[in-house]
Write a structure and sequence with these properties.
Elements lengths: L1 E3 L2 E5 L10 E4 L4 H14 L25 H25 L2 H37 L1 E11 L2 E7 L5 E6 L5 E7 L2 E6 L4 H34 L1
Antiparallel strand pairs: 1-2, 2-3, 4-5, 4-7, 5-6, 7-8
Helix pairs in contact: 2-3, 2-4, 3-4
């Protein structure tokens, strides 16, 4: 059993002086190929042979991303301080209504930025995880407020949940081997086009909000 990149090669045991049969599966996720090869190697019984191939096997378990709580707090503080300072500047150097309008423009920017980021992240995962993640079939566990809760198991045996309104007893998911709780259900072309459209709308809102903030700042500088 050999896993190399996005392919898996399986060589069946053959008698001496007989050419072994080799099966090769290509165009699969590299993480899935590695996990499959490791699982097969672990399930095979010990064989008596002059060369112990297990000494040539290396294992690198997926490493989960570092916690982001500390970085998130620093990011929030880094954004809040200049935002408050700019609002005070607009109220003092410009007109009072400019300070109030600033928060409306900031709200449009924040909503548009969140929409663009969330839709863009979803599109990236739709493209990335089916190619580089691990595909599993999740089974329906129960319903919560008309939303199905599906449960799946990663290669380490840990259980995770995925919620969606799609229905059905099973659903195919692709999850990130570095962070198994991040999973997606591959959507069709229509859903991806709608996500791309919403991402563009978010970009337009964020750009319009930033333009409005820039205009307010320019008016305040003019006095």
């Amino acid at each position: 059993m050999y896993a190399e990149g996005r392919s898996v090669e399986i060589e069946l045991v053959a008698p001496v002086e007989t050419e072994p049969v080799v099966y090769r599966v290509e165009d699969v996720s590299e993480a899935a190929a590695t996990a499959f090869a490791d699982a097969v190697e672990a399930a095979l019984p010990d064989q008596v042979a002059e060369v112990d191939g297990s000494t040539l096997v290396t294992h690198r378990p997926p490493v989960a991303p570092a916690p982001r709580g500390h970085r998130t707090k620093l990011l929030v503080a880094g954004i809040a301080v200049p935002v408050l300072a700019l609002d005070v500047f607009l109220g003092m150097a410009g007109r009072p209504e400019h300070a109030a309008t600033f928060w409306l423009a900031l709200l449009v920017t924040a909503v548009g930025g969140y929409l663009a980021f969330s839709m863009g992240q979803g599109l990236y995962r739709m493209w990335h995880l089916p190619r580089n993640g691990i595909t599993v079939h999740a089974r329906l566990s129960h319903y919560t407020n008309n939303t199905g809760v599906y449960r799946y198991t990663d290669t380490t045996g840990a259980s995770h949940t995925y919620t969606d309104r799609m229905g059905g007893n099973t659903v195919e998911l692709a999850y990130d081997p570095r962070d198994p709780k991040v999973a997606i259900h591959p959507e069709g072309v229509y859903s991806r086009c709608m996500m791309a459209l919403m991402m563009l709308v978010g970009c337009g809102m964020a750009g319009g909000g930033l333009f409005g903030i820039g205009w307010l700042a320019l008016e305040a500088l003019k006095g």
